[in-house]
Structure formats: C-alpha cells, structure tokens
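Quick one before lunch.
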Amino acid sequence: MASATSCLSIYCNPLVRNNPRYDIAIIGCGPVGALAANFLGKEGLNVLIIEREANPYPLPRAAHLDHEMVRLFQSLGLHDTILKDMRDTEGHLHVGADHGVLRYMGTSGKPRPFGWSNDYFFYQRELEAHLRDALDRFDNVTLKLGTELNDIRNLTDHVALDVTSNGSQQTLQARYVIACDGARSVVRKRLGIALDDLNFEEPWLVVDAEVDGPVSFPPIANLPDDCNIQQLSVMMCDPNRPATVVPGRGNHRRWELMLLPGEDDTRMMQPDKVAELLHPWLKDVPHNIVRAATYRFHGLVATQWQQDRIFLAGDAAHQTPPFFGQGMCHGFRDIANLSWKLTMVLRGLASPALLTTYQPERDPHVRAVISAAVSAGRYICMLDKEQAANRDISIREKVKRNELPTTAADLIPPITQGVIAAQTPSAGARFIQPRVSAAGETRLLDDMTQSSWRLIGSKQVLTNSAKTLLSELSKELDIQFYNTAQWQCTALAEWLAKTGTDAVLLRPDHYVFGTCTGDASALLADLAGQLFASDAIKLIDCRLPLFMACSEFDPPRFQQEWLGLMQKRFSATQQLDQGMLVAGHNHYSIAGHIGTGDTRLADEMVAFINDCTRG
Ligand SMILES: Cc1cc2nc3c(=O)[nH]c(=O)nc-3n(C[C@H](O)[C@H](O)[C@H](O)COP(=O)(O)OP(=O)(O)OC[C@H]3O[C@@H](n4cnc5c(N)ncnc54)[C@H](O)[C@@H]3O)c2cc1C
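Model of the flavin-adenine dinucleotide complex:
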C-alpha cells in the first residue's frame, strides 16, 4: 500500500508529468558512466545519462589500462578510434632499495593471448571524450550535461531521480539506475551504503608533465637486456622516497612520489618544490609541468553494490591504490558484467534475480586485485631502510621460486561464483582472444564470432539434444556454435587441450561460462537453468499475485507433461522442478515465467493447464 501511495504521489507531481520513463538512468558521465551508456545504447535500450559538469574532468588521472579494456572497446567498435590516442608499453619494473631489479613483469616479445598488448598508457580526458562522442551514434541515449542528481528513491517498479538542470528542478524516472557518480557518490550516501576500508592509506604527490626527451634513471643493477626502461612503468621502492615513473601517451610522463612523514601537502605541490623533486629525473630535458596534486591512495569497497533497482559501479563502488593502474579498469569490468544482465532483464528474458549475481561476481574479483595492489603498496611504501633491505631479499627469493605473477595480466583472478558452470574446468576465467583464420581471412576471435554467447569447440559436442537446446536457447539469447575444425587456430586447440575439454561456452563479457567434454547438453542446460529458472525460485516467495491454482485433475499426467514442456523449453533443473510445481492434495500451484513478461510462455501454460483439467 505504501508503495502504491508513493507511486501515485509521483504521478501527480507536476515535476514528473510529461517525463518519459527510461529503461536505465546512469548517474555520472565519467569514464565508467560513459562506457555504460555505450554498452546499453548499443543494445537499443532507452538510456538517460546525467552529468553535473559540462566537460570531462580536465586534469590527468588514470594513465594505464590493460588488454581487457581494449577488448571492451573492440566490442563497441571503438578500439580503432581510441587506440590512436594510446600507446602500448612493455610492462612493469620494481626496483629495490639497493637500486637492483626486484621484479620485472615485462611483456616485450611475449605472446599476446588476449589479442591486445598487456598494458596501454593514455590520457583520461581524451579517453572520456572518445567515449562521450561515441554516444552520438545512438538516438536512444540521452546525455544531459549540467544536470545534477540531488536525491534518489527506489519505488515499486521504477526509481525516481530528483535532479537540477540549469537551475530548474525535475523528477525523472527509470526502471533501473547505475550510479557511476565517483568516489564521493551521492547515490551511495543516499542509500546509506558503507565502505569497507582495506586498511591502506598513504599520501602521494602525483605530477604530470610533457617531457621532450628521455628520463634519467639512477643506475639499476641487473636490468634485463631486452628491456627498455623508457617504455616501462618503473616503481622505485627506495625508502628515501618511493616513486613511480610512468610513460604516458605522446610526450606525457607521470611521477607519483610518496610524501614522507611530516611533509605538508600544500607545500609539496608548489612549483619550486615540484621542480626540485623532478630535477634528478629530468636534468636539462625541456618539459612543462601540467599539474601537481596530492592524493590519499586507499583501498575501499562498498558493502552493498545493489539496492533494489539501483546499482553502484566504478569508483562509487570501490577505490584502489593505483599501483597496478586498475581503478578505472575495475569500473569497466563492472559495466561489462552488469550491462548484459540488465539487457536480459529489461527485455523480459530473465528474471531480476539474475541481477543479484552482480555483486557476488564482481566484489571478490575487485577485492582480490585491490589486495594485490595494497600488498604491493605496503612493500613499495616501506620507509625503514633495514626492513626495505629484508623486503628486497624476500621478494627476490619469491621471484626465484616463481611465486609472484610475471605479468600484470596474471593479477586478475577468475570469477568464482555467479553465472558460471562452476564444476567445469576454467569456468569464470577470462577467455583468450587469438587470431583465427578461415576462408583466407585472419581476424581476432571476437571479430570472427559476432554472437554475444558463443559455444566454441569440436562438432562432436553438438549431439541431437545439444542441438535442440541450442535452438531453444537461441530463441531468447544471441547464441551460436562455432566449429573449431573450420578454423585454423592453434591457440584455441591448445587452450581446449590444456583444460582437457572439447568446447567452451563464453559469456557476452568474454568470461568463460563453462566447458564440456563430449555432449554439450548438460552445459547448455546449466546455462538455461541459471538464466531462466531463477523466476521459479523467486516466485515461490511471492507467488500469490502470479500463480495459477488448479485442482482435481490428473496429477501424474500433469506432472509428466508439464515437466516435459518445461524441460523442452528451459531444460529442467532441480530448481525449476521445485519452483514450478508446489504439490498439495490433488492440488498444484504453478508459478511460471509470467513475472518477466513472457506472455508466450504464460499462454502455453494456461492452455496446457486447461487441457489437463478438461481431461
Ligand atoms: C592520480 C590517479 C591515478 C590513477 N591512475 C589510474 C590508472 O592508471 N588506471 C586506472 O584504471 N585507474 C586509475 N585511476 C582511477 C581512475 O581515475 C578512476 O577509477 C576513474 O576516474 C573512475 O571513473 P568513474 O566514472 O567511476 O568516476 P569519476 O571519473 O569520478 O566520474 C564520476 C562522474 O560523476 C559526476 N557526478 C558526480 N556526482 C554527480 C551528481 N550528483 N550528479 C551528476 N553527476 C555527478 C562527476 O562530475 C563525474 O564526471 C587513477 C586515479 C587517480 C586519482
């Protein structure tokens, strides 16, 4: 009743009348919000994105991203445009207190399993501008600049957003909201969501400069022959002043310099102090300081990423120390994860229960990478000389024993729970993107396979039942089978051989749903069960308005035929059986897919029930 009243009051509010109800509203057009609008716009959804400022944040922030982000740009057809303003680099180097190499995570000359270089450097403002400009492609995306969110409310079937735009107030409506409103997120605060503090907070000075010449490094012992230090992100773990030196795109360079105890933030940002700090690196090389600012590097993760119809993503959900340059990358992964799920739910293909897999999939993933960055931060920020010397010994021993990742790509763990066939080998892993040749043409895997869900492997997995399931699934999902025998690609064959499987089923975000050996039916049935059966589970709790009750008919026949029908359509799973049929004495309550707006199935159900009861 309370919700009905609030809906009515919203309807009567003159600020709301005449405003359309958007499928999705995105709060904040930083990089994460802009990427979200591109993904959801591409799906044809009716998207609103609001941004308080008129232009992208002008000063440099993120400088590094990895291959997975370029693959997302590729999914959007934006990689060619964006790559023009990026440069790839040759990896990361950590240097010890004694100025000897601690750890070299180089990528030069190494294979590129994911199709792109491991590390790219760029200028955040340019990247944001590309993502924003790309929204012009979509008539179904409305970008409202100079529009600030003041308040937000989850209501029964939509979210109400109070905004101020050019001095006037409005209440807008959307079925779902993604809050990409940054570290100080108004939405997170309004929803009362706390942040878990991962106990890392260190003050750093970040200096960006345009530099016309090479940077001077102190002599570094044991530098590998194949490495060009000018092309690396170099972490000087020197207790005199821990520092990172990063090559940006063009002639852009970044220094991140730890503030020492007692140093004053404001004083350290003054031009004369910045010049003094950079002098050993730049000597007489001509340069121009773009900006110098102090930051508190910290690790924070929201305790709740979804509240009803509202989701947190990007810095609103988590913040990471930038030691592996992953802060924005986490936000992009959030969007890749959430956008296909929201699309399915908004199209009525899956129940909103699917959305509850967002946090369980993303939160442990983010925490694992933040933990790696925090532990790197702890050893990088060591100021005690004796401790730093011991650290150097210990890290070098770990490197010898192969206990530490050898490229930054190895830092990213698989998804361990959520929409994956967890019992199958390599479920949840990021899938490789090799070059594939067919009919005289060689292309990257994602360009060769256009569908969003992909079953890739040997033809033998397509048994008759797997074919039937695939064809049923393809009525709801953009899914296709790709026969590796028709391609030349040793990397795919090697991947399958290494996992001991015959086929892999990929999700739209390029993570592995699962793998199979022989018949793919069970894998496809598992997918169907996970995507569609959740309605049944949900409806058990709230079946009153949605169920149909019928009694006094032939229960065994009903059960057999009903389950047959459901099996054919969705492949029966334990949850489906339990959820769809709640047995009483000669009485069955049936809860179905009606809640998602699948009227075709509802009609099938009604016809079938009528048929049974007549019999
Ligand atoms: C020094 C530094 C170095 C970094 N280096 C890296 C790196 O190398 N690699 C990496 O991946 N990440 C890095 N990061 C992190 C990266 O910059 C952030 O993770 C990224 O900007 C987060 O994007 P976002 O879209 O979530 O939030 P933001 O970029 O903060 O965007 C939020 C947007 O929401 C808007 N907004 C806020 N409130 C409202 C409101 N009420 N109404 C309307 N609009 C609103 C804001 O104006 C803003 O445009 C670095 C960060 C810093 C500070």
